[in-house]
Write the structure tokens for this entry.
Amino acid sequence: MGGEGELVLSQETHTQLRAGERFAHEAAFYRGLDGMVETVAPFVRQGVENGESILVALLPDRIKALRAALGDDASRVEFVNMAELGGNPARIIPEWRRFVAEADPTRPLRGVGEPIWAGRRAVEIDECRLHESLLNVAFDDGPPWQLMCPYDADALPDYVIDDAMRTHPIASGPTGHASYEGHQHAIEEFGAPLAGPPSSADEFTFGFEDLGGLRGIVARMAIHAGLDHDRADDLVLAAHELATNSVTHGGGHGRMSLWLDSEALVVDVRDAGVIGDPLVGRDLDLSLAEHGRGVWMANQLCDLVQVRSTPRGTVVRLYAWR
């Protein structure tokens, strides 16, 4: 894992960040709850002292400990439960966009967000890793502000720490050996195909005339998986939106696969369309053309959504936890 390290960044980046000229995205590595407080509290307190707008998105136990350390300064901070906000990591960037858009333009901004914690499912961690790289794509060309992303170096696997070095231009604390890869990491991850459906999956090729039948298939599978009525309806609506996208924008047809595993009911929709924007479905603008609106809706309706697009086509995979 590596020992205690100093702040790691290029001289050019250091100068730009010090001058407040760009988005400052930092990975801060700590060890245990006390280490989190020792790492995050000074960062937040500095923002309070500077009169900045501050948003902190952490798990409830972290929020409780940080509030205690901040004392009266905690009243100057907006806190968000990351377990609720970031269960589906694709919902996090819209919250940061809201924070930036609604903040007082005369005050600097800083935030703290911890999307990866011990106990998250492997597929959730995969999406969190993509999310961290997409933050750079989303904010690098916008107004300057500071975002610290804490990582528990004692509790998380080495590959997560390594990836944090790749996705953050600034890193402090116990660090690995990987170097920052800028936007290239996001592009590569978004363009890396997902593994195909298991051999046990039910698969259907569909066109426009099949959309109604697909809704019934997904509904029956959802009930079989034990989802309640509301969650089943949400999954059916999300799958229908994506299948409609495939028919409208993906070459007139697509392929849907459904399967159950020990954790989830999974619905996989594939078509020949290509999505060029790795931030698809993470934009607050609901008027998006093509796949954007359908993926946005899926992100709001489903427990987890994976989107990958290559020159050979696009897959959107929906998860409903059992």
The first strand starts at residue 24 and ends at 30. Residues 1-19 have pLDDT under 50 and may be disordered. Residues 229-249 form the longest helix (21 residues). The chain is about 40% helix and 20% strand.
